[in-house]
Amino acid sequence: EAQDFQAAAGNGVKAVVSEHEVAVGNERWLREQGITLDGLAERGQHLAAQGKTPVYVARDRRAAGIVAIADTVKEGSANAVGRLHDLGLEVILLTGDERSTAEIIGRQVGVDRVIAQVSPTQKAAQIKALQDAGKHVAMVGDGLNDAPALAQADIGIAIGTGTDVAMEASDITLISGDLNGVVAAIALSRQTMSVIKQNLLWAFGYNVALIPLAAGVLYPSFGVLLNPIFAAAAMGLSSVSVVSNSLRLRRFPVK
């Protein structure tokens, strides 16, 4: 049974097990703990070059082993990144994984930039830096380590198959784990804003044209008055046209 358990978010964990101090984490964190990895670091670099994340194990402050965790790219991820590019968006891979591993994954899916080996707080700081540069940032994540960045982003999008903490910190939660849902959400939001602008333009123009007519602006010159019954019908028609235009969103192809 583990005792004195300690966790360093995004880096590793350590505890006392059977009177032995055991630490498990990434290379940088173990070195900060004063643990020498001997020849394991070179082996870890070799694994990272294969697209795997090396996790080191130390016992009583001495290197004891290494575990390789392979990150598999979700089906449809490359297609989703391509569709985001079609929408004119810059796509950045922000991860706590080793840089070599992250760059391999980044090349597979076609992202514009890779920011690797960052802690949860550093992820949020990277989001803040992009915002300070005048960019509007949407963050997509599913893990506990993503929660600070999801909260910092202008729009946080959580994957429904992820952790509850990530979903609570986000603005949007996708039901499935398909990243194409991110594309659909952004495209739908843009279409919604377009419809809102159309409705405002129509309502404004309609009222600008008919309110003076209802007030009798044409009566002195042409003797034309708008019957109150027709005025009421015209206002009703305006509302129907706005609602009908909005209902077009129901036919939006969400895929």
Strand order of the largest sheet: 1-2-3-4-5
How would you describe the shape?
Answer: elongated
Strand pairing plus helix content: what structural class? alpha/beta
Rg, Å, rounded: 28 Å
Count the domains.
3
Question: What is the mean predicted local confidence, pLDDT?
Answer: 88
Question: Biggest β-sheet: count, sense, barrel?
Answer: 5 strands, antiparallel
Helix percentage range? 40-55%
Range of strand content? 15-25%
Question: What is the CATH superfamily of the largest domain?
Answer: HAD superfamily/HAD-like
> Treating each run of at least 4 consecutive H or I residues as one helix, how many helices?
10
Ends: how far apart?
Answer: 48 Å
- CATH class bucket of the largest domain: Alpha Beta
What is the annotated CATH architecture of the largest domain?
3-Layer(aba) Sandwich
Give a count of the beta strands, DSSP E runs of length 2 or more.
10
Structure description:
With 255 residues, the chain is an alpha/beta fold. The protein has three domains: 69 residues, Calcium-transporting ATPase, cytoplasmic domain N; 107 residues, HAD superfamily/HAD-like (Rossmann fold); 65 residues. It is built from ten helices and ten strands. It has a five-stranded antiparallel β-sheet. Helix 8 packs antiparallel against helix 10.
